[in-house]
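Entry for the shared binder. Reason: the reviewer on the internal report wants the predicted structure included alongside the sequence.
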Amino acid sequence: MHPRPILYLRLAGLLMLAFLAGCNLPSTTAVPAAVQPPSSAGTASAATPSGGTAIAPGGTDMAATDACSYLTGDEVGKLIGQEILGTKSDQGQDDVTGNPADTCVYRSSDLAVIVSVTYSNGLQGSAQWSQDMQDYLQHNSNDVPTTPVSGVGDQANWYATPDSGGLLVMKYPYLVGIVIGGASLSSPNDYRPALVRIAQLVLERVKGR
């Protein structure tokens, strides 16, 4: 049996919930012009040697965000070449950072894309940020071999299984996971450019959050 990436397992669970709930939500959610950053009220920032600053620790200051607001269903549908029939947003706790993980599932007739966004509490350039990147990659790939991808984030890695493909992107302070899977997914690598573009759009729109 092939190992399953963690985000793929989350995708399967969210898809089951979406189908059981009859998820047929409109796929034209407006993308906000700006997304508010985590509040840092009462929290002193700490400079790093490279001039970076810390964000609010513990994740408690980060308000829940509808991850489906980063990209519309139409945008995702055009990128994967299928009409998006519904979206399903969710928020849980990231296993690596302990911070909120905002998630959106975009569902077509036989494919689904999951977008997950969380963040690190480490200072930019710090050992914690480097460790969070390493742990995020290792945990979410779940021992599935990955290959580096250029052109998106500070670091990005791609993996593929027989029925899924995933992209893990680290762009300070965000950790973004995107995976595609479904019954008709015979060549996951064909969707890598689409997932790279989805990641680029998410990072553009989450900036300043």
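Summary line for the report: The chain is about 25% helix and 25% strand.
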